[in-house]
Amino acid sequence: MAEFYRIHQFAELAGVTVKALRHYDRLGLLKPVRNEAGYRLYQSSDLARLQQILALKSVGLPLKHVRSLLDRDPLPLVATFRQQREVLEDKRRLLDRAIQALPEAEAAL
Fold first, then answer.
1. Which long-range contacts (CB under 8 A, 24 or more apart) does 58-61 make?
2. Alpha-carbon distance 8 to 36, whole Å?
3. What is the spatial distance between Cα 39 and Cα 26, in angstroms, rounded to a whole number?
4. How is the beta sheet containing 5-6 ordered, strand by strand?
5. Which of 2, 7, 35, 107 counts the most CB atoms within 10 A of its CB?
């Protein structure tokens, strides 16, 4: 028999906020079962999916893209991580240029 966790228990177990869990539910990223009273009940399998959501979010993927990636079978995570790394490296290059331009802008003032 599967063990179920109420939302506060699951949030504490996963290290996220209750608000985040509700948000992921609204977006369809993490869909817990509901009991007769309508309370969200999470299982250990939900923890694995939540960890995937958090990992993809941490590399900068928007939650909209996270959902489409996780709903695919099989998950193209290696290619996704590679592509996201390239996007982040491009952003870093732009930030580096902006940082380098600041002293010149300060001197001009």
1. 59/84, 59/85, 59/88, 60/84, 60/87, 60/88
2. 18
3. 14
4. 5-6, 40-42, 33-34
5. 7
Tokens 């506060």 sit on residue? 8
| Cβ atoms of 34 and 40 closer than 8 Å | yes
pTM across the whole model: 0.66
Element spanning 61, H or E:
none
Neighbours of 6 (CB within 10 A): 14
Q: Where are the beta strands (DSSP E) in the chain?
A: 5-6, 33-34, 40-42
pLDDT digits (tens, 9 = 90+) for 49-93: 898 899 888 878 888 888 888 877 565 667 777 777 777 787 888
How many residues can be counted in the chain? 109
> Distance between CA 32 and CA 83 in Å, rounded?
30
